[in-house]
């Protein structure tokens, strides 16, 4: 089967890197760092397990470029070489097994919960529609340049540690996405207004990293197809940004969509074509494929091997991205490469308690708990066990919050 499935085909990137197959473990926050963002040995164990699972690329959870600004509790932060030894071990956990590993670089901007950040920043002083977040302060130009420099510095440290690339998180309502959105970026200077100005933040970050680390270092971007907000970042604008990034020479473009305010609807109604093809953004990828040459990856919704193979054979995408399937089955990629008709057991989390099932925190935290089990050398749980799982999930989430509060006190 290995020679027959399109998932097993190699792919040469612009950097010269040859991916050994078309399967990528996309980003999920691990919540394995110390409360101040310091890296721990748990990352090495986790990614060693995932690397053995068969993927060609592992994209890590968010790595913050500024430890003062985090999107979730216990997210890793890399500002300097303080953790270089542990970073080297983390990188080697994958590269020693012939697997690419790319940290996802992020700054949350105003999308940083108030229990983590009492001084969030954003392109413009426009608050989010939730009491979870403190209204942000508008960034000065000097601060914008400092954040760009932080992205570049973090990439330099990671490159020195042996990571083979990075991914810029320009989706899901975080800072780069905020700059791209005309709703959230209402600046009147060179960083706002026209689409050319709004994309300047990401293009300057990209150019700085490329200049510092060279053409052989992989730079990927995760970009929204749309943020699904009135007056926000549109599909047409997304295509224009993708064309500019393609022209600049990025190595892989991952398509996503939505933000904290308007997430992708994974539980509610979906178009018939989405249900049939599983992945959420394939229709957009087909439009984009006609406009750009950079390899495309779609993440979100893939569960069956047949749908993955159909998407690759259609030419709409070049890489299949998945996250949760590798949490419940760390070796799922090997199964896809060595046998046929595989289907991931991942389904929406249900506990039988309607109010709990409606909370995104339950689903996110349950998977985070399984990531922790893998990082401890244990097998992940595969089923939610009603009230017991609810209690455990909320206890673990509370513990992570308490660790952060102690550091901030």
- The CATH superfamily of the largest domain turns out to be Aldolase class I
Number of strands: 13
Lateral arrangement of strands in the main beta sheet: 3-4-6-9-10-11-12-13
Reported by name, the CATH topology of the largest domain is: TIM Barrel
The string of secondary-structure elements, in order, is EEEHEEHEEEHEHHHEHEHHEHEHHHHH
Quick take:
With 409 residues, this protein is an alpha/beta fold.
Overall description:
The chain has two domains: 6-346, Aldolase class I (TIM Barrel, Alpha-Beta Barrel); 348-409, no CATH class. The chain contains 15 helices and 13 strands. The protein has helices at 42-52, 84-95, 141-161, 175-180, 195-198, 200-213, 235-248, 272-277, 282-289, 305-314, 324-328, 332-338, 354-357, 360-375, 386-408; strands spanning 11-12, 18-19, 23-25, 57-64, 76-77, 100-106, 121-122, 137-138, 165-170, 218-224, 252-256, 296-299, 319-322. The protein has an eight-stranded parallel barrel with strand order 3-4-6-9-10-11-12-13, surrounded by seven helices. Strands 1-2 form a two-stranded antiparallel sheet. A two-stranded parallel sheet has the order 7-8. α7 (235-248) links the parallel β10 and β11. The radius of gyration is 20 Å and the shape is globular.
